[in-house]
Every structure is written in C-alpha cells, then in structure tokens.
Amino acid sequence: MTLPNKKQFEQYSGDDFGITFVQDQPVSCRIEEVKAGLKPQNKSQNEQFSVVFSCDEKQVFEQGVYQVSHSKMGEFELFLVPVFGDDKGVHYEAVFT
Prior knowledge:
Pfam families: DUF6916 (PF21880). This is DUF6916 domain-containing protein. It comes from Marinicella pacifica. This protein is mostly beta strands. The protein has one helix spanning about 5-10; strands at about 15-20, 25-35, 50-55, 65-70, 75-85, 90-95. The chain has a six-stranded antiparallel beta barrel with strand order 1-2-3-6-5-4. A hairpin with a 2-residue loop joins strand 1 (about 15-20) and strand 2 (about 25-35). The radius of gyration is 13 Å and the shape is globular. The two termini are about 15 Å apart. The model has no long low-confidence stretch (mean pLDDT about 90).
C-alpha cells in the first residue's frame, strides 16, 4: 500500500477525514498541522514529516494502527499516537520516516 506524501496531506489540510478507532464507527478529524522533518540524505530515502490530526471525539484512544479515509485520498492505515487533548477533542500524530 502506498501512503500519501507530505504534499498530498498539505493539499487537504482542513478537510474532513474519518478515522476508525472503533470498528465501523469513524470519528471526524481534520489535519491541524503538517511538519517537515529532516531532509533525505539521498534519493533512496523517504521524505520525513509528521501530520497532526484534530479529532472531535474527546475519548483518548491508545496509540496504534487505524483506518483513515478521505473523499479524495481514499483509505489507508496510519500508526497514530495521541499527543494532547483539550476541551475540543484529542490530537493524534502520524510520523513518516
């Protein structure tokens, strides 16, 4: 499975994504931030970056691999880690290396 790249995530920043933390119950989330990582040393290395999703659900789910869906990007799986929560919901980060 090919994962979206940094440019694709940036293009759809602010769009609604569905993240399925519990089977058949997607949570509405949006990209809060796309951060660049270290530059690849050579062409065989992948682009490094991270994506922070802001989710409406206030329940904190454990880090793990979850199904993500978007109307244009399709469906893919990401390893997500809860990074912080506030009165609006929980933020999860995916790191690409």
